[in-house]
Amino acid sequence: MRAYTTAHLRVDLPQGHPFPLYKYQGVAEALKGLLPILPAPEVPREALHLAHRPEYVEKLFTEGLSRQESLRLGLPFSPSLLRRALFAAGGTLAAARDALELGLGLNLSGGTHHAYPDRAEGYSLFNDVAVAVAWLRREGFRGRVLVVDLDAHQGNGTAVFFQKDPTVFTLSLHGERNYPLRKERSDLDVGLPDGVGDEAYLYALDEALEIAQAFQPELVFYNAGVDVLKGDRFGRLGLSLEGVRKRDERVFRMVKTLGVPLVVVMGGGYNRDPRLTVEAHAGTYRLALSSLA
Ligand SMILES: [Zn+2]
Predict the structure, then answer these.
(1) Vertex 1: Cα angle to 43 and 50 (nearest 5)
(2) pLDDT in tens, the chain (293 residues)
(3) How far, in Å, is the centroid of ligand 1 from the Cα of 140?
(4) How crowded is residue 149: how many other Cβ atoms within 10 Å of its Cβ?
(5) What CATH number belongs to 3-7+19-292?
(6) Where are the domains of the chain?
(7) Where is each Histone deacetylase domain found (predicted)?
(8) Which of 65, 119, 286, 289 could form a disulfide with 77 if both were Cys (CB 3.0 to 4.6 A apart)?
């Protein structure tokens, strides 16, 4: 077992920008000693073309994003930002291959589920899960894929990528009143009220996972965003650290019952207490290892 990281890649951000670069370093630090942590490989441009609109990809490499497009992304566009996104997506691709080979693939980055086929949005330049699925298809993987997106925000981009693909089931549990305000249609959307606590959350999750399981997936991607934690700057939900552990446990238990490979990607996490963000993310990966490795 191994995990991929983008922690070594720097990005030029304005001082005080809320993007939590610190957590990639923190999570890698917290997990070293448990398993080898490798620098994520760069995603082949060809893989980006398979999933995204090629014009969009090429525009990023030539012109970058306009001011307006950067506002929508929530990050100022720069070569360092593009570079980091290439490795973050590459990490998910490598983790997906690991999953098929070893049963479990871990990317300590990725989960950029707001990227659409033709545009960037919400900290997401490339939709790493869509890119990985497209690449696996190209390599001949034909199995049914389930995307379990438990980040606090709807996986709107992911929903659009797979809307017309009957071989991929998208499940998103998210804050109904939270970003993105205009929701897309996943195969199963569960919108939760602001401030939802552990009990109500886990009840809704149990119901959703039961439906998702009936799809009989042969590969599962898990967006394990921890912005569901109480005290998150953007999440608006109210889970405890123990609630997040129980959430993860349910996903891993389902995967174990199904006996299928799992890919874990990081997703969001912007707690006012940075230590909590790191602890929650690291907890997800530790539990994945102890339950599935
Ligand atoms: Zn989020």
Answers:
(1) 20
(2) 999 999 999 999 999 999 999 999 999 999 999 999 999 999 999 999 999 999 999 999 999 999 999 999 999 999 999 999 999 999 999 999 999 999 999 999 999 999 999 999 999 999 999 999 999 999 999 999 999 999 999 999 999 999 999 999 999 999 999 999 999 999 999 999 999 999 999 999 999 999 999 999 999 999 999 999 999 999 999 999 999 999 999 999 999 999 999 999 999 999 999 999 999 999 999 999 999 98
(3) 31
(4) 27
(5) 3.40.800.20
(6) 3-7+19-292
(7) 21-273
(8) 65
